[in-house]
Amino acid sequence: MNKILLASVATLSLMAPITAVSAQELTVYSGRGEALVGSIITQFERDTGVTVNVRYGGTSELATLLLEEGDQTPADLFWAQDGGALGALAPVFAELPAEINEGVAAPFRNPANKWAPTSGRSRVLVYSTERVSDDEFPASVFDLTDEQYRGRVAWAPTNGSFQAFVTAFRVVEGDEAAKAWLEGMIANDAQVYPNNNSQIVAVADGEVDFGLINNYYLANHLRNNANLPVSQTHFEAGDIGNMLNVAGAGVVAASDNQELALQFIEYLLSVPAQQYITTQGNEYPVIPGVIENPTLEPYAKLLEISPAVDIDEISDLEGTLALLREVGLI
Description:
With 330 residues, the protein is of the alpha/beta class. It contains 13 helices and 9 strands. The chain has helices at residues 3-13, 34-48, 59-69, 83-88, 98-102, 160-173, 175-187, 196-204, 217-224, 258-268, 271-281, 299-305, 317-326; strands at residues 25-30, 51-56, 77-80, 116-128, 153-155, 191-192, 210-214, 230-233, 244-251.
């Protein structure tokens, strides 16, 4: 186990206790997986005496459930996997105190204070180190519709992070350009997989040579097999294929437990929790004072190559789903 990982685990377990609140419960709908966030939630319970009831599921699934439940929802807080869902749910979130977002780095911040980012991630191109030559790297995600990539590229149209990417694509490039790219990828025999991890396995096994994923998945595979013949890269600076997205949390306006939900968000934005998320989850911290994960693109480089996208504008998930249905991907 590396030194940064040891430090982050130790730091999380030594987080300064928040004033304990006995016999209180907090209900969290989490689109974040238990494997990553379960330890943080458990530590919050230990430090506060609060019992956290968690409903895990897909971000889109839980967002739909929250909207269907309306004022009758048992959820006090929604922890989303991507910014698109946060923007879509802004009407059901309570406004946060301005100071919650004041310490957050500007690219991740929600100016309307309807939700708070908890980590950042970047879209990347994963590739085979055995079968891809130096002159085959595409400059843009648009290039993947070219003949030289026929049948060699994996994607996951049903995956939430891919759908958030398509939403951002629509915002930046327009609906017609997004539709043309999707149809171009289909015509170029892009290979369909269920998620990010399965694309990495497919590249390693020789089924495809490239895949479109989030930045943090490959590091988890390399921890288990350092010799995996797979690496990842970004497109040229400013390309929509380098989209920067966030995970984040919002307090449900219908909750009678808003103060406790705010306490939980503050906990997630503490340096120890952020250090744990970046070291364990290979995501980017959203506050200063956190040691950078050496397996990630340096933070300054990330900001340099990321396209300008207002996270609040990538909330039209329904429009994206309609487009994906129209072209036959879902």
